[in-house]
Amino acid sequence: MNGSIHGDTLMTDIQAAFSDPQFVARYTEGPRRFVPGYDAMQSMATILLAESVPGDGQVLVLGAGGGLELKAFAQAHPGWRFDGVDPSAAMLALAGQTLGELAPRARFHQGYVDDAPQGPFDGATCLLTLHFVDVVERRRIASEVRRRLKPRAPFVVAHLSAPDGEKERPLWLARYSAFLAASGVEPDQAAAARDAVSSHLQILAPAQDEVILREAGFSDPTLFYTGFAFRGWVAYA
């Protein structure tokens, strides 16, 4: 989890959750239940990175807490090295545990995008993170990542993104709620999750997400993943 809406009540609550020992202990169970096609999305992100990242490449991972994508990338490409950034020390500790014997290939940095090394990196990812920050901060994060990448290096992002029409947005969120219920979440909790996502997270329309990438200096933003209310893109520095 990576974000920086400083002073916002929601962000304070999110940061508190990602520092709560019980939440952290259960974290690795959650994404596969709460994100449609989570494992496939990670596999696709790995493939997209590998099209450009060399065998001994260095990859920047924003929102690296928990370590799930780090482990997927590291297992698929034994020569890759990683810099993982996350504001939660507890989640970074969990990332180290998740990586296990692969942990020496990753350097961890507690903080936000400004705390990331300058690079230049061969590729970068920001998965399930940008919906925590507002439009202004999202633009800044994209620009800071772009500044840290080598020319034509890939940037892979995935987060909540759904059409903002009066009928379309509620429909997509209702479908997401139904997915949660089908994944074993109690129906009332699935409905509450839908309401919380709708009210508190920063969901943009897909076209807006693509504009932000272009404004940050990325070219060819291409949609590669759609999971109900989640979408993912790859774009190039």
From TrEMBL:
Question: Is Nucleus one of the keywords?
Answer: no
Record keywords: Methyltransferase, Transferase
Under the heading Gene3D superfamilies, the entry gives: Vaccinia Virus protein VP39 (3.40.50.150)
Q: Which GO terms describe its molecular function?
A: methyltransferase activity
Q: Where is the Methyltransferase domain?
A: 59-151
Q: Does the keyword Methyltransferase apply?
A: yes
- Give the record's GO biological process terms: methylation
Stored Pfam families: Methyltransf_25
| Signal peptide annotation | none
Protein's recorded name: Methyltransferase
The organism of origin for this protein? Bradyrhizobium nitroreducens
Q: What is the lineage of its organism?
A: Bacteria, Pseudomonadati, Pseudomonadota, Alphaproteobacteria, Hyphomicrobiales
